[in-house]
Each structure stands twice: as C-alpha cells, then as structure tokens.
Target: Cytochrome P450
Amino acid sequence: MPVAEDLDAPPRERRLSLWRDGIGDGAAAHEHRLLSAARPALPLLNWLGQFANPIMRVPGLGWITADPRTARALLNDPEHLTLLSEGGVGHLWAQILGDWVHDLFDGPGHHDLRTRSRELFTEKTSAAFVTRAWGARLAEARASFEAGEELDLADLSRVLVGHMVVTLLGLPIESGRGDDAYREIFATGEQLASIALGTTADTTLPPQKIAVAREIVERLTAHIGDAFGTAHPDTIIGRCREIGLTVQQTQGLSTLLMVAGTETAASAMARTAALLFDSGEQHRLLAMPQHRDDAIREALRVTSPAPLIGRSVLADLDVAGRRLRAGERVMVLTWTANNLAGPYRIDRPYLPQHRQLWFGAGRHLCLGGPLARAELGAIVDLLLGDGRPFRVVERRYGRKVLIPAYSSLVVQKDRGPRREE
Ligand code: HEM
Model:
C-alpha cells in the first residue's frame, strides 16, 4: 500500500492494516510472533494501544497512549511526570545504585550530565566507535558471508554488542576466548536488564534481585575508579573525565549505557535483517542505495526495540480532556504508535509527528541514538554491501526476554548473479 494512503486512511483502517498482516509469513507476522514470544502480554497491550488514541485508562495498568503527539507531550513534561517514583525505570535503578540516582537520572544532576555528555555520541564519534570496536570482527563475518557461508546474525549481534561494551567502557577482557568472552559480556548486560522483567505493573524490587543487580554493577564498573585518571580520551571513561564528570557519574552513566544500549541494539540489528528479507524491501534498497539511511530509520520505527516507556504522574494534569492524577502510571506504547504509520518501506518520508519516538523524547531522549544508527548501518552494509540479496534460512524468537529479539536468525547470500558487474 502506498505511503500516502497509509497515513491518510481513516484511523479505523489504519488499525486494520496494522493487524491484518498478523496471519501468514509476512514481515508483520514475524514481528507479532517475536513480540509474543518475548512477553505474551505485549501483543495484547499493543492491540489495546490502537484504541489509546489519544489516551486511555486500563484498570490495573494505568494510562496508555499510542498517539505520537500525546506521547511526546507527556515525555516533555517533567513538571508532571517522572521516571523516578514507582512505575518508572529510575525507581528501579535507585534501589540498585542508591539514592544519588535521583539527582543523576531525573534531577538537576541529570540536566548537567546530559549537557556535558552531548558530544559523547555524535555521528562522527559513533562511526569511529563502530570501526574501532567492530572493524576486525565484522570484516571476518563479511568475508565468510559473502563466500556463501551461513551466518547467525542474532548471535553475531550479541557478540558485536559485547565488543562495543568492551570498547566503550574500557572493560578488561580475558584473551584467547574468542567470541565467548563477548557473548558473556552481552549476557551480563542482559541479566542486569532482566531485573526489570515483570516490573510492568510494579517497580519495587525484592531484596534478592537488588543483591544480584548490585553484584553485576560492581563487576562492570569496579575498574572505573582505577582507570578514571588515565583512560584514553577515546574511551567513554576518558571522555567522561574530559567533560568533567565525577567517578560516580561515570559509573552511573556506564551502567546506564550497558543496560540501555545492549539488548536494544542487538534486537534492532537482527530484526532489521529479518524485515529487509520478509518485506522484500532489500531488493528495492539494492536498486536505490540512496535510501540506506531511510531504511535504517524505518527499521527503527517498525521494530521499536523499546516497545514501552513508563512514567508516573507527579502532579495532577489534564490530557485530551482526561484528568491524570498524582500517583497514577502512564505508559507510552512506542511500538504501536510507530507501527500505526504503516508497514516497512525504505523510501517512506520522514514522519514529523513521530520524529524519533523509537528513541523516546524530551529530556531522556536516547543518548545513544547516533551510535545505534551507526551500528545498524554497519549491519546493512554487511548484508547488502556486495550488491547481492540474502535470505533468511532459519529463525528462532527469544522467549521471555525484556527486549523482544531473535535468539537465532540464520542468513545466507542468495545464489543469484551480482547486480553490478
Ligand atoms: C536501537 C537501539 C536503541 C533504542 C531503540 C533505544 C531506545 C531508548 C529509549 C526509548 C530511551 C528513553 C527511555 C525513557 O525515556 O525512559 C533511551 C534512553 C537511553 N538510551 Fe537508548 N536506545 C537504543 C540504543 C542505545 C545505545 C546504543 C546506547 C548507548 C550505548 C543507548 C543509551 C541510552 C541512554 C544512556 C539512555 C538514557 C538517557 C537519559 O535518561 O537521559 N541507547 N533509549
């Protein structure tokens, strides 16, 4: 269906087009199965989200919205909404890291941190991080993939994200263990993030979960104190020092990067590959390589790897004629809001009402957006850089995971002729 038709269609038809493709083997069908494998309640919540336009109250959950404008207005309203009290991710982290999180994650310290860290991930530094962290491993993968070998892209994504964490945080790594050492780093980030599993309705953690999370944070950030004074400015620790952050701020930010930028990025990488194949859009991208960046933006929109953003209401406010009261919870359904705009199309124009809702909005807008885009660019180049299409040979959806993702996605080059020779 052409782009303009999708967006101009009446809301009811847009809703139908979102779910119509849910049966069969199309791109949307695989996305639906992936979401329900991760968290069986997700498709139901997303389906409900179609009616949350602009906002709706769900007993036991709180307010939900899948309207991009309402979502942005809420995420841009720190006077009335917070992620620190119960219902927000900051509440989880304060229990693990300590009360200083209140200042650093959502208080005046957060503003200071964001202002200072503005230059951490620009297009340029992100491209450099990707080359440095991935160059060798990616070249190896590309050589065997282009030679016709099968490649498990979901596994490779986890390994590559492990490499990125090691590079960014300057983590000491055991040599001689190959990919396994990096898989382990990824799994540690996953474990830390999984602490948040099951917190959709309640963000108060039991003591044993707090203890496990603290032990992981210690493992990941203990080296920072010693490395802080001498870390190279090309590492995040060195850059944090150069921009005037304290050791504690650097440890907090490193933990956040680990949690926010591992599973989300790996999820997006394999799902982008699946989307390009399932939708057939890889052929259009090969024919119109000028749409590479649009294809990446679209993949982020359609996959929306962080499908929900939670906040709690600090003070009563009115939204679209409904009164939200202090203490209630609000959930922005990013996946639904983004997918209501239509299916994956590499040449879909920029959607001004959505902007980059897959990265959130307002003061907590994803810090690693340029890095995520650079990572996805490298994956698209790996898949299609030689001008030939690929196919998905086999796939497995990740079960009971916080961020919906493929546990395995085996791809292989099609055996057709090269396009440009
Ligand atoms: C496709 C990949 C990614 C997606 C979809 C994504 C999505 C998001 C979203 C939705 C938020 C806002 C959460 C909220 O408002 O509660 C966020 C915040 C954040 N992201 Fe990302 N993210 C991705 C990759 C990354 C990467 C690669 C990094 C860095 C290595 C990163 C670092 C952060 C940080 C530090 C925050 C917190 C910002 C703050 O609270 O001020 N993210 N991300």
Remarks:
- The radius of gyration is 21 Å.
- The domain at 3-413 is CATH 1.10.630.10 (Cytochrome p450).
